[in-house]
Design a protein that fits this description.
With 196 residues, the chain is of the alpha+beta class. It is built from five helices and eleven strands; from the N terminus they run ααβααβαβββββββββ. It has one domain: Jelly Rolls (Sandwich), CATH 2.60.120. α1 runs antiparallel to α2. The structure holds fe (ii) ion (FE2). The site of fe (ii) ion has 5 residues, from loops.
Amino acid sequence: MTKRSPALQHFIDSLQQAVFEGDLPDAAKPAATRIFDALAAEDGRQEPPTAKRLPVCDHLPAAFENAKAGPDRTVQLGAAFAAVEPQLTWIIKPVGDEHFRANHANAVVVGVDGIEQRNDVRIGVSLVAPNTHYPDHTHPPEEIYAVLSDGAWRQNEGAWRKPGLGGTVHNVPNILHGMRSYDTPLLAVWSLWVGG
Ligand SMILES: [Fe+2]
């Protein structure tokens, strides 16, 4: 098995720091611990997909620049993500209207279709162009976001909350949740525990 590249390890370490040093609620800590313990215990298969950018990725430079206004952990995570981004396959989530499909993209860093293939953890990134609503959705795995931009998140169609740069969002299993950008691109790293 090939070992994780230093760039990917640095991204994982930076994400761990951003998650635990942010405002992570206590309820999210067991899942976060499970995710990062699994990543520390074992490298998955290093098999990067064919890299592919989408037109919305033209917003990446602005998003990376904006992340530099955050706390140190956010600056570091933004730079660590920028270093692995050229290896990623950006994809469109096939839901929502035409505006949404043209104005967002997701990429998996760790997990199926990621740089490191494994079945217990799924870590990826969402990029949302300005003034776009990422539709509310649900999924069984618990989810933790590390936020690298402005933008707002909501759960169960409740009030919009702005975690801010360096903030976190915790979605318990199957909760209805969505996000939206305002006048700058939204960039966030999500981590899911998908193991048994
Ligand atoms: Fe989600």
